Amino acid sequence: MTGEDPGPLIRLFGLTGGRARPQGEMFDLVAIVTTVFGARPPADLQPEHHAVLALCRRPKPVADVAAHLRLPVNITRVILGDLRREGLVGIERPRPAAQTIDERIYREVLDGLRSL
Amino acid sequence: MGYAASEPGTTAVAPALAIKILVAGGFGVGKTTMVGTISEIRPLHTEELLSDRGVGVDDTSGVEEKITTTVALDFGRITIREGLWLYLFGTPGQDRFWFMWDELALGALGAVVLADTRRLQDCFPAVDYFEQRGIPFVVGVNCFEGARRYDPDKVRRALGLNPSIPIVLCDVRERASVKEVLTTLVTYAVEGP
Ligand SMILES: Nc1nc2c(ncn2[C@@H]2O[C@H](COP(=O)(O)OP(=O)(O)OP(=O)(O)O)[C@@H](O)[C@H]2O)c(=O)[nH]1
Ligand SMILES: [Mg+2]
Questions:
Q1: Euclidean distance between CA atoms B86 and A24, whole angstroms
Q2: B68 Cβ partners below 8 Å, 6+ apart?
Q3: Over the stretch B147-180, which tens digit does the pLDDT of each residue have?
Q4: Which Pfam families match (chain A) (predicted)?
Q5: Nearest CA to ligand 1 atom 6
């Protein structure tokens, strides 16, 4: 995995201003990202940031955002941190699965799995 | 656009929920295959760029040190309905990526530990890991061709597993088989032994 074209990495470096880690929270891979309704993105927003805003009009977990952007999770987190600081997205810290899965969700998951 | 806003108090619909399930086990045991068999999306290879964390990154120099090591993270998705998903994460096999396990395991519903009967010891670290943290897991014995169909009790004894932990013989290339493993895990994680 090393020795590849360094171009994309250098571009990534620019995208995040060299930050490989987000400031503040280490967003969980399944934290839910939602574009804030009616938010006005600044004109100079980068394409990746715009892409997140479009994607997350329907709530999406961080892992999905990274996959859609085809960017590493760390880089995606930096972008998400930026967007949140600008008030453009909300990022909901997930609670442990054991606390969020009630009887109804449990049934839905089992039925869903069985009908795959 | 009628999308739900993220501001508290303004959302009318149930909050979106993504449930994490880990797929762990030794090198080449079938983790990626399992995720790919059941995922509705091609197993995504989200590359995690390692930064300045102490992970014993190969010796490099200068700024490159921050960004040259990557580890592929398998990830697959099962949509139950809009706003309710299961996410499967294949854990990285190499020891030096343990720190990623901690992040992945946080808040997870549970884990599937895949085992290959020809080298059962390879899944010891994963079993230990989940046992120590009290994360519910089931053991999936991946029945490779040529491997004898093992007696689950033998596997249990060899792994020193608590009698309550489910063991499922599986073929991770088969959808039905992977479904069985996952329903077993979900049931066990929610209802307990
Ligand atoms: N015959 C047989 N082959 C399998 C089975 N499961 C996986 N394989 C093969 O075993 C090889 C390794 O499978 P992977 O799914 O890549 O294993 P992995 O655990 O992701 O491997 P690493 O990520 O390298 O640790 C692949 O060539 C698979 O096609 C199985 O049930 N039967
Ligand atoms: Mg793999």
A1: 27
A2: A2, A9, B57, B60
A3: 667 788 999 999 999 999 999 999 999 999 999 9
A4: DUF742
A5: B30
| pLDDT tens-digit readout, B61-75 | 444 344 445 567 788
| Residue nearest (by alpha carbon) to ligand 1 atom 7 | B30
For ligand 1, residues with CB inside 6 Å are: B 27-33, 90, 93, 142, 144-145, 171-173
What letter represents residue B141's amino acid?
V
How many residues appear in chain B?
Answer: 193
Domains of chain B: 17-191 (3.40.50.300)
Question: Does A63 sit within 8 Å of B87, measured CB to CB?
Answer: yes
CB under 5 Å of ion ligand 2: residues: B 31-32
In terms of Cβ atoms closer than 10 Å to its own Cβ (0-12, 13-18, 19+), residue A3 is exposed
Kindly list the domain boundaries of chain A, sorted by start residue: 7-114
Intra-chain end-to-end CA distance of chain B, in Å: 46
Query: Of A12, A37, A108, which has the smallest distance from its Cβ to B84's Cβ?
Result: A108
Both ends of chain A: CA-CA distance in Å? 35
- Helix (H/G/I), strand (E/B), else coil: B67: helix
CB contacts of B86 in chain A (<8 Å) are 109, 113
CB A77 within 8 A of CB B54: no
- Which pTM does this prediction carry? 0.83
Question: What are B12's two structure tokens?
Answer: 């009318």
Q: Which residue of A1, A12, A25, A29 to mutate against B (max B Cβ within 10 Å)? A: A29
Chain A residues whose CB is inside 8 A of the B190 CB are: 101, 106
Backbone angle region of A95, left / alpha / beta, with phi > 0 → left and psi within -120 to 50 → alpha: beta
d(CA B178, CA B184): 10
Q: Is B158 exposed, middle or buried (0-12, 13-18, 19+ CB in 10 A)?
A: middle
- Chain-centroid distance of CA B172 in Å reads 13
What pLDDT score does B104 carry? 87
Using the structure block, give the residue that is written with the tokens 């399992």: B34
